[in-house]
Amino acid sequence: MEGNFKRFTKQNIIINILLVTLYISFNVMIGDLRDEHIILAVLWIVAYYAHSKTRRFVLGFSFFILFWILYDSMRAIPNYTVNTVHIKQPYNLEKFLFGIKYNGDILTPNEYFAITSNKIFDFLSGFFYINWMPVPLGFGLYLYIKDKKLFLQYSIAFLIINILGFVIYYLYPAAPPWYVAKYGFDLHIGVPGDRAGLVRFDDLVGVPVFKNIYNKNANVLAAMPSLHAAYPLIVLYYAIKKKMKKTAIVIFVIFALGIWFSAIYSNHHYAIDVLAGVILAMTGLFLIDYILSLPYFNDRLQKLLKLI
């Protein structure tokens, strides 16, 4: 209630000053402080102190904020400095498992689509791919309004599955298919992100949508597993748990299939990357459901609910 809202306390002032100072200092230290870092820090402070409702909202979405900070921070220690980058191995495995015969050659699905692309699929792939984050965030907002307990479970699952994916990125650095098409099987350190097949969407709409996104890619050599493939499955799972209408479920199924196809069609992921992302999501969802059902963690969940 607003009547019990304590805007400023010694504790929350100290904690927020420390959080913002550490966040800004970290990005300065790695030489990559950008406008969005400042904006995030300002929005956090404004939302936290403006009103009880904005505080609850920003605390509720702190799991998503933490996800973005962790992803963005991976640029400080690139995965290729930790383990060997796999370039040829995933390419050969993709060709062995999903190779397509075309004009006497065996092509990966990515190579096949690069040759046989058309404007309809160019548009659809871009349309689905541009929503890889807006849909999970929008669904999170829906759950926050309708069912805060399920929203909290969804947020935790989203964060944990991402963290598991990040760990795999460091254990098994892997080049995306567009890298092979552009650079071959040799390792080139520090290559920028690339729109790959999504450049065709940008050309169709006349706006460099994906150029602006992939210029800020924090981890280029991290194709396995495809977290793009994991997100729509997380959304679908919690939509089913929420017992949403069949129309909504069908839409989320189409969204998942669209993302999976687009990841391959746009030359950003192999089919094995997509499959790995799906397996990661399914495994993570099962484990998180089990963990949150345990009395200790269920009790902590109830305490977190009071904050949002």
Produce a short descriptive summary.
With 308 residues, this protein is mainly alpha-helical. It contains 16 helices and two strands.
Polypeptide structure, described:
The chain is mostly helical and 308 residues long. It folds into two domains: 1-60; 79-305, no CATH class. It contains 16 helices and two strands. It has helices at 10-29, 35-50, 52-60, 62-73, 88-98, 109-116, 119-130, 134-146, 148-171, 177-183, 199-205, 209-214, 227-241, 246-265, 271-293, 295-305, and strands at residues 100-102, 105-107. It has a two-stranded antiparallel ribbon. A hairpin with a 2-residue loop joins strand 1 (100-102) and strand 2 (105-107). The N and C termini lie close together (12 Å).
Helix content: 55-70%
- Tell me the structural class: mainly alpha
Spatially, the strands of the biggest sheet line up as 1-2
How many helix segments?
Answer: 16
Order of helices and strands: HHHHHEEHHHHHHHHHHH
Average of pLDDT:
95
Q: Main sheet?
A: 2 strands, antiparallel
Q: Any idea what the radius of gyration is?
A: 21 Å
Query: What spatial form do the alpha-carbon principal axes imply?
Result: globular
Work out the number of β strands. 2
Oligomer: single chain
Distance between the termini: 12 Å
Please tell me the total number of domains: 2
Q: What proportion of the residues form beta strands (DSSP E)?
A: under 5%
Poorly predicted spans? none
